[in-house]
Every structure is written in structure tokens, then in C-alpha cells.
Amino acid sequence: MFKRKKASFMRTKEDIIFDTSNIIFMIILCIFMLYPFLNQVAISLNDATDSVRGGIYLWPREFTWHNYEHVFEKAAIYQAIFISVLRTIVGAGIGLFCTAMVAYAIAQPNFIFKKSVTIIFIMTMYFNGGLIPTFLLMRDLQLIGSFWVYILPTLISAFNLIIMRSFIEGLPNSIFESARIDGAGDFRIFFQIVLPLSLPVLATVALFVAVFQWNQWFDVFLYNSSQEHLTTLQYELMKILQNSSTTSSGDMASAFANSADGGSNMVTPKSIQATMTIVASVPIIMVYPFLQRYFVKGMTLGAVK
Amino acid sequence: MGWKKNTWLLSLLAALLLLLAACSDDSEETGSTDSGDDSSEESSNEENDSGDDGEVYTYDFFDASGPGEDINTAETTLGKMFEEETGVNFDIEHIVGDVNQKIGTMIASGEYPTLLNAEQSTDAVIDAGGFVALNDLIKEHAPNLYKMYEPYWELMKRDDGNIYVISSGAPHGYRKPANLNQGAWWIKRDVLKELGYPEPKTLEDYFNIIEEYTVENPQIDGAETIGFTALTHDWRFFALSNQPMHLAGYPNDGGALIDMETREAEVYNDKEITKNWLQKLNEVNDKGLFDQEAFTQNYDEYLAKITSGRVVGFFDYRWQVGQALDTLEEDDDPYNDYMGFPVVFDEDTKDQYLDPIGFTASPGMGITAGTPEEDQIRIIKYLDHIAKEETQKLITWGIEGETYEVGEDGRYYRTEEQIDETSSTEFRDEFGFSYFEWGWPRMNGEYEDGNAVEPPKQEEVASLMYDEGDKEFLDAYEIDTFTGLFSEPDERPWYPAYDAPIETGSEAQLYEQQLDDLMKRKFPEIIFADPGEFNAQWTSFKDEFSGLPFAAYEEVITNFVQNKAALVEGSAE
Amino acid sequence: MQSESTIKTKTMSQADDNKGLKGFFKKCKQQQALLWMTVPFVIWVFIFKYLPVWGWSMAFQDYKPALSFSDQEWVGFKHFLFLFTDDRFLGVLRNTLAQSLINLVLGFITAITLAVLINELSNMKFKRVVQTISYLPHFLSWVVAAALVSSVLSIEGIFNEILMGLGLIDKEILWLGVGEYFWGILGAAETWKNVGWNAIIYLAAISMIDQEQYEAAKIDGASRIQRILHITIPGMKSVIIVLLIMNIGYILEAGFEPQYLLGNGQNVEYSENIDVFVIKYGISMFNFSLATAAGMFKTVISFIFLIAANSLSKKMGQGGLY
Q1: pLDDT tens column, A127-136
Q2: CATH second-level architecture of B38-166+365-396?
Q3: C196 — contact with chain A (CB < 8 Å)?
Q4: Phi, psi at residue B550, to the nearest 5°?
Q5: Are B300 and A270 within 8 A, CB to CB?
Q6: Residue B300: its chain C contacts at CB < 8 A?
Q7: A147: domain range?
């Protein structure tokens, strides 16, 4: 609809200059943003020992699939991918729902605990009890060795909560009022009005949570490292990366031991790092384009009114 | 419409939750069979208490000493053999993140895997009572293990007289390695060839070679020649700060020189030898021979630079530049390889680049507290089995006729095919060489029959590894192996001094970190200074250094050295 | 902490409601649904976020994980003193503030600008492609990103080559070897890495703006720039303010990975910040106490800045976080 309307306006000279320079700027920007990625693709497709020489830019010098084969030859990686996908979907789904619900409540101007609940959550952004107390808590809650240790501790991020709240506060008050007059309770308003109207921010927060969940490896390291069936892709990749490095532990004795066996390494940290970058990021990058349609739709307030 | 979509999403979520519920049920089950908690271990063992025959016991082994593949030992040829003999196998888990953090959580919760190598956190686990004492266990149930470690028995004891961990590498005799693995002053072979195979003996000689070549060849393959580069990135800074020690004729004892007579430790970072070293670099820098990026390049860039062939020389430990030097060795050009020399300050100094025989008591593997006695016995028997000489040969040489041959004179050797096979990663993984590596009870040096413990240290194996290019240089310098130019190490019963346990939060520990920070900050200023400014810069460094608690560090090292030396010499008598 | 906030809650609810306790309960009943929506999560937040705060006691101990709470050795303010009396502390604090301030300002300006410019693209396909590409660097780990920055800035790197080509410098500069450049390099690297990611939230904000406003402005003859300044930017205002206040609270969180990876002996006087310091002298030395003390210090500073920013914003009539 907008497109047709737009066409009826004459593009002014200002518009043309603006659009052209904007497009040029964006193209330059894209080159800057894309290059490192393509560079990693090239390194990941290049022979590992050859990569040590450096000087690989956009095209592999000695093409090979070996780095990818090396990453995917371990059976553990497939289970890890499954867990990663699962925690991303479950984490984003549950997290989004809970965040939105609390955000809705603290966005209500007359909610009696509006301020206190808000403060209680905001404060959590600026402190943490530390590694060991948190670990002991997880142990006491019997979350160690379970999938839920990925979901429960990070159920609601205060940051996302506040973002969501300020979007909900931005919705015109009249919608809520007319709904209340019609006899709708808070749960109905939340499900039937707020959620559908907040798609852009829901998409944003979903993306934030999904990316956070997808990238996590530290909680696997702390809580579930001995549960082979619960490790995530990032963790398994981390493992492969460390294995590829003969001297990563920083300890002379083990470094000596590792290199003493004489055999040449088929993979190097650099090439595995590149492969890992691609393997770990491509799936999650795909999420954004999918969510983008919720951004451009915009608000169709008229329909609601 | 929005509502419909929500319903759809919700039902998807519900479906996932169901799936999850199924999943977590499963996880609990598996968790109780092979997880690390002791309670389940106990219960499973009670069931199995009836008898040892045919029963296979699986224990968790958490290895923080380095990365590796997480597998069950019985999945390898060697592990399967050991399982058949002992009825025991291990689920190995290697560390992936920070050791201190991971071990810290284990200590705090008191939940340990059955067998543990806690690497740099070993002392913390011992302090926490996390390991059981092994003295009696070994004496009663592990005669082979006892025999192997007997010479070091006293060294393994802690202050309370107990032995908690078994470290790897009990030296039995010395075997000079055929190939360099430690520090050396490297020069590109091309350079050596062009200058008629000179042999640098002193630091002076070494930089003269670099200067001569660089002046004649300002460019290599179109890129500017780099006379001398250095590795300084992050924790690898010692590759620039250890040189004074080596140049003065000491092996790598870490941050202090140990006097051979008095066995007193003395830090050297503010001494003349360090000044001389920095002054040389300052002079070399003034001549344009020192890599301007030496302090900003990261590890990868450093390796890439060396591999590019633009670098005339550098000092480093072989195990740090392995990736680069291996790459150069594998290509067809024998002249872009590097050759290492034992350079010292003056010709009268005897070089000590090769590691002396040394026993390190920690880290090592230990059985953790809470392990039932029967399990402790089974585990120690397994380790005892590994400590048998024929098992040791299995984990180092492999199986006769398959991975090595025995000559008529009883000497072990490998054919070229066997060398190829045993250096392929896949084979090593499958056979188990990769897993029964350093970390398990292990001999070092040579077997009673005179064969080297480690195949690469056997001349018969090493010589087969040299190609035509290597031989050209071996012949030119009239040596048989690339360590031929290096002196044999003197006896240093305390070696290595850097193994001294340094208490958490102590001044000595603080000193190490502060010194590292100070050197990282000041050394570039000193080296890049105008030669006229050198003395002022050096004095300023020395002044700041004098404020560090180095005396505390020296005391810790001295105590360690003297105690250890006394114990070694005591038990030798 | 826990009791403090409950007191707050009480006093506030009383202020909200003048009819006393009875009225309060009545209101609670009226807002039953809202309570159901929040109370479970308040319990959650207390368990998962507030309970572990007992760990702060470590800051006053020489904490040893093996010992039980009652067996720990109490050392008072030793670790705080170590932190505050170190010769480098002021420098480290300065670096932290400078790095995070540069990051804050640059981060905001660039992300908002990018969001506005992306919004102005009329071709939907191009718009989506740009959006996606612009957030790619966020997915590179700092190890990879720092290696790239380092190679771009090396002596023979592309940056020197361009500057030489343009005749702006006559000798290559070792950018990472000069401390004074470090903040700038870090700011640029952070911006490059995160601008696309940070823009997402503003794009969401823009998409919530009522399209009719634009149509109306067009009819009124408003130019592109005018529409941006008078509709787009004001439309994002509430999000910008909320983010700004929250980020001001993070004033001592300058990150540590890029500083650690790009830092070296030559730029250490500008690169070392609190987090890097804590890694060196705390975590890597098995000293959990020092790390905790530093964390507490950061929390206190965060709260001060947060409260100040919030009340300032309220005074300026822009609303606040709470």
C-alpha cells in the first residue's frame, strides 16, 4: 500500500542525493562487515599447514574440505548441535514469554508493585554473586547434569525486560482502556492485544535470547562438562579448537609432551578457529533474516482501533 | 490472526517441552551410570561386589593437564588390552576452559571425579583434602609402580609425609634427544649456506651472521628482510626474557639462576647478563635488524612471519614454533628450514640448552577422596599394570612386528612405513598412543636393555627421519643429529626449579606477575631507545625492579632447590 | 539487601495508596492477575540472582574453596586495599572509564545513525541484506576480530598502506605500539564489531512508529532530514533514554577480551583496565577474593551512576528507568 502511495510523490533532488549517498555508504559498510567473514571462509577452506604462512584473503590458496571434515568427524558434534538448537528454541521461547509477561505487568502505570519489581530486576544487571556461589546454588537446586541449567538461571534478562517494558509503555493507552471497558482482564489483554502489537520488540528480544543461548559454552563447561549428551555445539567446537593447539594449556611439560610425539598436525588452531567461526555462526545468523519481517511490518494501529 | 499464530507457537513450545521431558529422563539414567558423583559409583560397585572376574569397572578420569579427545580408554587398542588384564577402564574428560575455575568448583562442592589430574590447581586440591594418600596403597598393591618411582619416593611426599599424586616421567638414565625440542638460536639454512656454513658460538657471532646476510640481502622474495624477530605475546613473553639465563650457560630453570655450588637461587632480570642482552638488542635495533613489530605481533603473526622465510634468525623453544617449523620442513625447499645453535655470551661458557634429567613431583594423577577402598585398589592395580616394563614398551613403542622391529643386537627400530604409520594422528588415536601419553605413569630415558623410552630419541629412528636437505647440513657441521652441537646437560638434581610450588597469594606469586608486567612495559622502551639513552632506560627499569618482592621469590626457589637436591642425592646413596 | 527492598516496597505501596493496609489488600486483589504475572518471577530472581550474593563475603576473606564458610580466614579490607593502593590502580581506572565512555558515545551515535539510514533505504531486499550483513561481525569471536585488527594495523598492513598512498604519513606507524592510539583503535574496533547488532533495537523501535505520521509529514512538505529529525528520532527517544541510563550504569564494564588480546607492553598504560587487572592478579592466581572485591567495587560505582543518571533524566522530564 505504501509503495503505491510513495510513487505518487515526486522524488525531490534532495531525495535523490540522499538515497544515492546512502546506498553508496551502505555498500562500503557491507564490504567492511563482510570481508572478515569471507576471510574466515577462505581460511577454513584452505590447507591448515599452508594457512600458517598467512596471506590468505578472499580465496583459499590450497583448497581442502579437511578442516570441516575434522570438525564433523566426531559423533559428539551432532548431539551437540541438537542440544544447541533445543536450548536456543526452548530458551528463546520460554524466556520471551516470561519476559513479556513481567514487562507487561511493570508497564501498567497503576500496578502497586511497579516500582519495586522494576528495581529488583534492574539491580541484577549490576552484580553477581560470583562463580562458586552460583555453582553451589545450582548444585543445591540439583540442576547440575540437567538440561534446565541452561534455561532456568537465565530465564529473564533484566536488560531485555526493561527494553520490552519501554516498548509496551509506548503503546497507546487508549487500547488498554477500551479493552478494560469491554471487560478484558490482564491476561486477555496481554495475550490478545499486547503480544500481537509488540511483534517488533518480541522479535528483537527473541533474537537477543536466541543468540545468547546459542553462543553459551561457559555454563556447559561449569555444570555439564561430563554429560556428553548435554554439551553444546560451541562447547564441542571449543574442545576441537583446544585439541588443535599443541601448546594451548600454557604449561611447558604438557607442551613438551605433545610435541614430543613428532607427528605433524593436520589441523592448526588458526584453521580450526576459522572453521569454527563459520560452523558456529552461520546457523544463528540465519535467524535474523527470518525475524526481520516483524520489523518492517510496523504497527497497524488502525486495525485495532 | 495474531492470536492464531500464538496458539501455533504455543503448541510448538508444548511439543518441545514434551520432547525435553523425555530427554531429561534419559539424562538422569545415563547420569547415574557414568557421572562423576561418588554415591552412584558406590551403589554400582556394591552390586558388583560379588567378584572381580569378568566384571568391568569404569571410572572417571578428569585430566586438566591439557586438551584432548574425550573417550573411554577401552575404545583404543591399548586400552582394550589393559581392560582385559585388569578389568578396569576410564572415561577420560579433558579440560576445555580455565583450570582454576573448574577445579575451584570441584573443591567448593567436594565432588570430584575418581581419578584427577588437577594441573596447576593440584596444591589447592591437596590442601582441600581432595586426594587420598597413596603411600600404602602403592606399597601393598602396586609393586611395579613402586619400583618405577622408588628413586623418587621421597620427592613425591608432601610435607605431611603422604604421596597424593603420581606424576609422569620417572627418569631412568639419560638419553640425548636427536632433535631439538628446547631453546635454540635459529638461523635460516639459506643464510648458513650462503655464508659458507658458519657456526655461531657467541651472541656476537650470531648477530654478525645476521648483519652480514641482511646487509647483502635487504630483501627476501620481494619483502623486506627481518634480521631478528621475537615472540612476546601474552604468557609467551619468556621467549624474550629467558635468554640471559641461557646465554650465561644455564638451562631453563625459570625465573632464577641456581648456583651449582651453593644452590642459592638468584633472580637475574636486574643483573649484568640481562643488561648485556638488552644492550645487544638495543644495538641490533639501532642497526635496523630488530623486528619493529616484535612487541605488537600476536602468536599467529609471529608464526606466519617465520614461515614466510623473511626472518633471518630468532630465539625460541622448538615446541613454541613447532607449527611454523613443521610447515617449513614439509615443503620441498630444504633451505627455508631453520637450524638451531647453542649460543652463549663468551666461548668459555658451556651451553646448557638441553634439559637435564629432572623429576617433577607435581602435577600428576591422584585418586580423589570419597573413593571406596576396593575402587582405589582396582585403580592402583591398573596403574601398576601400566608401570610394568613390557606395558611401558607397549605405550611408547607399540607392538613388535607391527609398530616397531627388533634388530639382531636387540636394538629397536622402525621401518619407514612404521614411522609414517605411527606419526599419523588417526593411527595414534585408534591405537591409543595419543591417550596413554604423558600424564600416565611413565618412564623417561632408557629401558634396562638400553633402548630409548621414546622412539624419536632412538638414533635408529631419528636417522631415518632425516632427508637429503637435512643431511647436507649435518655433514657440513660434521654432526650426526641436530643436537650434535649442543653440550650434554650437567647434573642438576633440583631441575626444573620452575616447578617449585608457589603459594597462592604469597609475595613470591605476586612477584612473578609483577615482574612480567614490568618487563612487558619496560623492555620495549629499553630496546627501542636511542643507544645514547640506553643506560638511563636500564637504570629506570632497575629502579622499578628493586621495588618488587624478589627476595621472597628467591627464598621460595632456594628452599625448593635445596630440599629437592638433598632428597634426590639422599635417595641416590 | 533483601530486607531493604521489602521495606522499600512497603513504604512505596503505602505512598501509592493512602487508604492504609485495607486498601492495599483490596488493590492487591484487584490486581490479582498482575501479581500472578510477577510474583513467581520475583521469587525466581531472588533465588537465582540474590541468593548467591552471600559470595560477596569472599571479598573480606582469603577465600579457599575447600573450607566451609565458618572456617574461612577473615582479612577485612585487605583485597580492597590491594586493589586501591596498587600504583597502577588510578591508571587502570582511568583506562576503564575512558574506554567505556568512548564506547558508550560512539556506540550510541553510530548505532542510531545506522538504524536511521537503514530505515531510509527504500528497496526492501537491499534493506534486509544490509541489515543482515551489518550484524555479521558481532558473531566473530574477539580472538578472530583482534587478529584481524592487528593485521590491518601492522606495519605492512592495509591501513598504513592507504595512509601512505594518500600521502597522509611519510613513514609507517606501528599503531598498536603507541599507547596514545589505543583508545581510538579499541573504540573503532568495538564500533565495527557491534554497530549492526546495536542497531537492531533501534530498528525495532522505528518499526513501532506509526507510519501515518510520515505520510502526514510528507503531505506537509517535510524534507527527508526533517522527517528523520522530527519523527524517527523522537520515535526512538524512550528506547534511547532507557538504554542510555542502563549503559551509564555499566560505566566500569569496558570488557576485557579486546583489551587483553590487543594489549601489549608498549600500549599497556592505555590498554589495561580493571577487568584485565583482575584476570592477571585474581583469577589466574586462584585468588577468587580479589575478583570478588573488584566486582563489589564495580557494583557500587554502577549503582551510583545508575541512580544519578536516572534522577537526572527524570529531572529533565524524560522519564527514567524506574
Answers
A1: 988 888 999 9
A2: 3-Layer(aba) Sandwich (3.40)
A3: yes
A4: -70, -30
A5: yes
A6: 147
A7: 75-244
